[in-house]
Structure formats: C-alpha cells, structure tokens
Amino acid sequence: LLKFKEESFKCALGTGWSIPVTLVIGCDVGISYVTDPTGPPTQMAHFQHVESIQSLFCESNGDNSSNHVTALSSSSSVCSIASSITSNKTNKCKLHLKIAGAPELLSITCETANVAENIADLIDGYCRLIQCRKASFWLRRGTREAMINRLSSNQNNIASDREKDYAEIVEEDGDYATPSVKDYELCRKRLTLDSIIGEGQFGDVYRGCYRQTDDPLSMLPVAIKTCKADNEKNMGEKFLEEAFIMQQFDHPNIIKLIGVCSESPIWIVMELAKFGELRSFLQANEHRLQLTSLIMYAYQISTALSYLESKQFVHRDIAARNVLVSSYECVKLADFGLSRYVTDHCYYKASKGKLPVKWMAPESINFRWFTAASDVW
C-alpha cells in the first residue's frame, strides 16, 4: 500500500563507512530511515530541530584516495539549503544536516544530484511549513553558478538544465488574448444559444449550434462559454486567455477550440461533449460502467496530461468536473482557465488567485507550486 504522506529515497547514512538505508520523510515520521522494509522507521530528527543543511559534491576519478568534497553553501539560519551534483565518475552528492542538540552532523549520501535535490527540497518545504517561514531558505542560484565553473562541458550542460527547474514565473501580467485568438474569430450570426449546461468562473456555458456554411444542414453542436457583462470590462482579456491556450492544443482527449467572438458579449466556442462532466456521468452510471471503461478513462486522461507536459503547460485544475464525456468510449480534458505556460521551467508558482484546494497536491497547497506531477496528483 502506497503511503502518500511519506516520501522514500534510497541513500546511505554516515561518513566513511556509510550504511545503505531507505530514507523516509513525512509529516508524521519527520526525517527517518528503515533498513528492513517490514519494520517501522527509525526517526533521526524532527523538522523543527533542523538548524541548517549543507550540500556537498565530490570531485573524484573513482579512486577514494583522490576524493575531494566541496561545500556549496553554509548557513546558520534555519534550513538553509543548496543542492549540487558531483563531478567525474562518482556522481554522488552529500547532504549534511545540523540538528539542534546533536554532537555531529547528520550525513546523507545520494547516488545522484536529482535525489539530493528532491530530499533537500522536501525538507526545505517541511521546515518552512512547520517553522512558519514564507520565503524559501534554499540558496539556488549563487551556489549553482560556482559549482558549474568546476564541471566539464558535458556536466555543465546538465547543471544548466537543472538550474532552470527553479526559476519563478511572474503571475498573470501578460496579455494572452491577442493576436493569435483573432485567427479563430467567428461570425456571431452563425451561432445560436440553447440551454445552459454549466456555470463557470466568469459566466455561463450554453449548449448551442454553429452553422459552418450557408447550408442550413451544416449545423455543428457546440458548447459556448459566455462572459458575464459586469466582468467584461475588467476581465475580458483574462477570459480570452483560455481560448489562447486551447488553440495551441490538438489531442483526441482534449476539448478543441472552435473559435471566439472577441467583441462584446465575449464568447468562447468549443466542441460539445454531449454527456457532460465526468463526475456527474460516473454518479449516474456507477452500477453500469465496467472496470475496463474506468481504466480506459484514466488512460485517456493520462495521455492528455502527458501531451500537456510535452507542450510545457500545467493545467492546475485537474478534477472530475473538468473532464468531459464525449462518448461512452472517450473522455476529454477541459477548462483551461487556470492553465499556465511554464516556458523551459519545470514548475509554476502562483502568487495570487483562488485555487481548487480539494483536488490540489500537497506541495501546491503548502507552497503554491504547480508541476506536471501535481497535475497527475
């Protein structure tokens, strides 16, 4: 049974003759380890007792006699963290934790920089949460630049890629609505509104029809998202951000954008999923749906998430209400109102706005970080 409240890492404890263990980190166990998978974890430290964390990388040619360990950062403040990678053949990284009241540093040796960074990031988050610190104590940039100068050209490229993981993105300052959405401009006279099928953050969603040509038989069923009149002046551009995002996607399990009417009243026209929200669909058909269908839906949503990651987008609002049922064999991801482009970085940090707490990953709730992994959660 997977324990979602804990994270486990293969590493080694101690200096010199290190002991291979499974490091366990979580809100209940603190910083612990296990040597026997069937036994309980042994706690080494509480997060509130961590005074500093120092990250080291080894310069080695594979000969223990020629090993050199270089400190990347050191701080007397609570939970000051920097992470690094090794040079040459060892590819190992050490973390030294100073624990209040302990006579010696707690030394953790990791096989790769990625593992060390994950451990450091997780401990940093718990320390900030428990000690009520808003700003991160993880020193990411200056120490990384010093390390890069010590590596070969190949390792330099690796370090550069890892450095990009920790660039913060400015919140919602750009204009997403123009000019690309203009290519999707529709003639309003070809659209008809029927019944309301949902309510959104900025307005209602209607079932409707779009007449693609002058032929009366060329009617296409569509979903039309409208912007409330009292929101248009201040939120019109933000409302159209969703259309700008959707027009970049082409995937069988993502709702397609048909077009927009960008003049008041603003409409976003999308393909219609005739069976509505997955949440309601599952509730109405709970005794009828087979396990194979549920697995198929999960697979289809996962392919949509994989596609979003390949396009460097995070959705930020993955929930059953935002998955639409096109047919009994097909579900599609929708509602990209909270989606964000993360350029060449691995995470997006939200600084403001309402977020769907019930469906959010722990790191998103605690630190407002959003990644492809938090979308999967």
Automatic annotation (TrEMBL):
Catalytic activity, EC: 2.7.10.2
Catalytic reaction equation(s): L-tyrosyl-[protein] + ATP = O-phospho-L-tyrosyl-[protein] + ADP + H(+)
Superkingdom assignment: Eukaryota
InterPro entries from the UniProt entry: FAK1-like_FERM_C, FAK1/PYK2_FERM_C, Kinase-like_dom_sf, PH-like_dom_sf, Prot_kinase_dom, Protein_kinase_ATP_BS, RTK, Ser-Thr/Tyr_kinase_cat_dom
Gene Ontology CC: cytoplasm; plasma membrane; receptor complex
Residue sites binding Mg(2+) per the record: 322, 335
Organism: Leptotrombidium deliense
Gene Ontology biological process: cell surface receptor protein tyrosine kinase signaling pathway
Subcellular location: Cell membrane; Cytoplasm; Membrane
Protein name stated in the entry: non-specific protein-tyrosine kinase
Record keywords: ATP-binding, Cell membrane, Cytoplasm, Kinase, Magnesium, Membrane, Metal-binding, Nucleotide-binding, SH2 domain, Transferase, Tyrosine-protein kinase
